[in-house]
Amino acid sequence: APRLASRLWLGGSIAAGGAVGVSMEALASLGLTEQPPAPVVQGVKVQGGPQMLQLSLDGTRLYVTNSLLSPWDGQFYPDMVAKGGQLLQVDVDLQQGRMSLNPNFIIDFGAEPDGPVLAHECRYPGGDCSSDIWL
Hints:
- By secondary structure, this protein is α+β, with helices and mostly antiparallel strands.
- The protein is 14% helix and 24% strand.
- β3 and β4 form a beta hairpin.
């Protein structure tokens, strides 16, 4: 039977210091004692929260973008619209059943020459991710 072996915080509306306050009761229901900080990778504060996921075919890398739809991004994550989105890599340890945010991998779309821009989904021509198995 499936069981929860790991979970990973990648940001979202309830990040500490954000506009959303969360009651202690609600935090406790998530197994938290305080609102978690937004993740920081290579000195870049991750904006928004995880939206689109792509799993590598070998199951060891999960790629995550944080833009859903620009009008919604503007409503829920105005800082992300102003600063740009990101693409992150989650390392998946298949033996231990654990996930961890890769501290060395980030694509910061806020640093694009015509940016900042938002990244909704990533595709890998030639196929290395779950979205490409149909090719």
